[in-house]
Amino acid sequence: MAAPVPAMMPPRELIPDSIALDHKPSAKIHYTFAAGNNPEKAPCRLIVFLNGLMTDKSTWLPVMAGFIRDHRDNGFPSLLAYDRYGQGLTEDRDPQDRGQDKGRGHNVADAVHDLHQLVTQIWTHKIKRSQSELRLIFVANSIGCAIARLYAEFYPGRVDALLLLDPMIANSRFDWWPDPDSKDFDPAELPADVTIDVLRDQRTKFATVFAPDVTNKEGLDRRDLADQLPYSDRPVLEAPDGRRLVLTVVEHDPERFASESLQSMGTPISLSMKYTNPLWHRYNKGLLQISEPHLAVGPVVAKNCGHFVQKDDPSFVTDQLSSLLDRLELQPPCVAA
Fold first, then answer.
1. Which terminus of the chain has fewer CB atoms gathered within 10 Å of its CB, N or C?
2. pTM
3. What is the C-alpha separation between 245 and 149, in angstroms, rounded?
4. CA 16 vs CA 32, 161, 226, 273: distances in Å
5. What is the model's pLDDT at position 128?
6. What angle (nearest 5°) sits at the alpha carbon of residue 37, between those of residues 33 and 40?
7. So what's the pLDDT on residue 4?
8. What whole-number distance in Å separates Cα of residue 50 and Cα of residue 45?
9. Vertex 283, ends 267 and 259: CA angle to 5°?
10. Are the C-beta atoms of residues 65 and 11 closer than 8 Å to each other?
11. In which residue ranges of the chain is pLDDT below 50?
């Protein structure tokens, strides 16, 4: 029997740590940081990895490790992954939630402002640049994509590029299938293997697990997210110097997603293929409009990947990030001090 292959050690550049945000000093956020290794180029940007609700920063570590190994010889920007309050290694709850009903404290906009405070402190104290030089690239999954979009909207001119991995449909109540109680409902349009009872069951299951008013472990209130991001195709986002940001939109493999939905939620594959996947694809196509056509790529299908693309194929994400940087021409947006 062959000896087991030892796990690859993480790159020495990846350093775990924790930090208290200046505006919330009573709680600490856990993060992993890698300082850029080429002071003449890379430190002028910070690449930030943004989690979904059902993952934490650990899912980004293989991506970060692969990226460092691929770029160590030629230099790479600084990298940052973190766990939001109440998520992963960040056991502290958001101080803003004290006295609030469970799961009804901070919302996505609050998470965006916390992110800004975090990257500002990392940029100032780790990268040692002035705040006026702050330039970001976001690599995001699921609701992390909504956080990335809102950040670029709230803080225009700070984000150079976005790599959006299977973005959540931010303007949805996860009500993706026909309503059997609607006067316009036509049962003949359902797939042959889907009964009205099955349809009702799936609608109830998804609403119970995913609807915006359902609370989650980290206490992130999503009830007003559809109001904050009502459209996929706007607003157009501003990059530094009045430019439009470089954008890549990645979507899940439709067959892999349908198979996983069958396993996890009992969703008939035909429902996913007829309704969910086409709806998601239209949403992702709309996202391409938040930049300019010559700067936007996608939707790129992540072959054999479900919703959590970075978990299913970290090498694919590393390659997409490298391609994004190539399109950004690897030129520093600020002059080295």
1. N
2. 0.93
3. 11
4. 4, 25, 34, 41
5. 86
6. 125
7. 44
8. 16
9. 25
10. yes
11. 1-6, 42-43, 331-337
271 Cα distance to chain centroid: 25
164 neighbors 287 (Cβ within 8 angstroms): yes
> 167 and 140 in contact (C-beta within 8 Å)?
yes
Q: How far apart are CA 279 and CA 273, in angstroms?
A: 10
Determine the pLDDT at residue 3.
42
The pLDDT assigned to 7 comes to: 55
Distant-in-sequence, close-in-space partners of 98: CB < 8 Å, separation ≥ 6: 105
DSSP 3-state of 82? strand
d(CA 5, CA 38): 32
Tell me the per-residue pLDDT of 284-316, one tens digit each, with 9 for 90 and over.
999 999 999 999 999 999 999 999 999 999 999
The pLDDT value given to residue 75? 87
CA end-to-end span of the chain, whole Å?
56
The single-letter code of the amino acid at 11 is P
Query: Token digits for 287?
Result: 């996202």
Residues 6+ apart with CB under 8 A from 212: 173, 174, 222, 223, 225, 226
Between CA 253 and CA 160 the distance in angstroms is 27
Residue 242 corresponds to which amino acid?
G
d(CA 127, CA 77): 10
The tokens for 207 are 């609403």
Strand order in the sheet with 46-50: 15-21, 24-34, 78-82, 46-50, 136-142, 159-167, 246-252, 296-302
DSSP state of 270: H
Q: Beta strand 78-82 with 24-34: parallel, antiparallel or unpaired?
A: antiparallel
Show the DSSP H helices in the chain as ranges: 61-71, 108-122, 143-154, 196-210, 225-228, 254-265, 269-271, 277-287, 309-312, 314-327
From the number of C-beta atoms within 10 Å of its C-beta (0-12, 13-18, 19+), residue 1 rates as: exposed
